[in-house]
TrEMBL record:
Residues 22-289 form the Septin-type G domain. GO terms for molecular function: GTP binding. This is Septin. Belongs to the TRAFAC class TrmE-Era-EngA-EngB-Septin-like GTPase superfamily. Septin GTPase family. GO terms for cellular component: cell cortex; cellular bud neck; septin cytoskeleton. SUPFAM superfamilies: P-loop containing nucleoside triphosphate hydrolases (SSF52540). Keywords: GTP-binding, Nucleotide-binding. Pfam families: Septin. Its main location: other. CDD domains: CDC_Septin.
């Protein structure tokens, strides 16, 4: 598999580096059926075993884990990982999307309640989710009914980015077919995923970069934390009888591009979209139905 390289010295990257160099907070929701590579991807992203494969459960649960990551340039990332053990694992999965949506809305409600206080809590934690990585099963048919229903509902409350895990288990031809089917399904059902159009600066460099990223959707990733050495080269990857798959090689995986989106090039876009569009829409809907809360907000302001 080949992927276009995302240039790391564009004006957009430099702008975001300036924004994030003092550290930032990001909350990622990871959703998808068991066996799609979610836990392995998160462990690779965090370079530690923060995610474990949960035991089979009788119902879906939502849990939040926090970790601080140190980047090579000194940036500190306060990362929250929200996962959903049990999603899609039962005979009747009809309520699973609603369970996740309720969690997302509960974080919005916490912020809204804080906004209505005359005296704000200086230690208040904003746990609004900035992006959902929705992991898909590698099917040539693309999305199934649960995927369509879940993405449709989640996209109203969070930026959704589709991901195909375990890309090393597919041939290039199979992977291209799966990517094509997924995007055809997304377009035919008008699913509002994050398509890298949110750019207040209307920057040409980022427009070009966004075009390349849209061509990669859904991101096809490989996860692994095992370090191999071949001659003088060290890399994370997986070993097969025919050779190696390198996690951070753009010819093998979209991992490095997705990591750049989350921790660099589009961190501010994801956060701005969450606060300025998704949360504001929810906030407006909530206040229109609750005149007392609107009055308290006016006093607090």
């Amino acid at each position: 598999m080949s992927s276009p390289l995302i240039p790391l010295n564009t004006a957009a990257h430099l702008r975001r580096h300036k924004i994030t160099r003092k550290g930032f907070q990001l909350t990622i929701l990871v959703c998808g059926r068991s066996g799609t590579g979610k836990s392995t991807f998160i462990n690779t992203l965090c370079d530690t075993d923060i995610a474990t494969t949960p035991e089979k459960t009788t119902e879906i649960t939502v849990r939040n884990r926090k970790i601080e990551l140190g980047e090579s340039d000194g940036t500190i990332i306060s990362l929250s990982i929200v996962d959903t053990p049990g999603f899609g694992e039962h005979i009747d999965n009809s309520g699973h999307a609603e369970t996740i949506v309720k969690y997302l809305e509960s974080q919005f409600d916490s912020v809204l309640q804080e906004e209505t206080r005359v005296r704000r809590n200086p230690k208040f934690e904003d746990n609004r989710v900035h992006v959902c990585l929705y992991f898909l099963s590698p099917s040539p048919r693309g999305l199934n009914e649960l995927d369509i229903e879940t993405i449709q509902k989640l996209a109203a409350r969070v930026n959704v980015i589709p991901v195909v895990g375990k890309a090393d288990t597919m041939t290039d031809k199979e992977l291209l077919s799966i990517k094509s089917s997924v995007m055809e399904n997304i377009e035919s059902h008008n699913l509002p995923i994050f398509t890298f159009n949110y750019d207040l600066d209307n920057n040409y460099d980022q427009t070009e970069e966004n075009d390349a990223l849209r061509e990669m959707l859904p991101f096809a990733v490989v996860g692994a934390n095992t370090i191999y050495q071949v001659n003088d080269e060290f890399f994370r990857g997986r070993r097969y009888p025919w050779g190696f798959v390198q996690v951070e090689n753009p010819m093998h995986s979209d991992f490095i591009a997705l990591r750049s989106v989350l921790f660099g090039s589009h961190i501010q876009d994801l956060k701005d979209s969450t606060l300025d569009i998704i949360y504001e829409k929810y906030r407006t809907e909530k206040l229109s139905k609750d005149p007392q809360m609107l009055a308290r907000l006016s006093i607090a302001s």
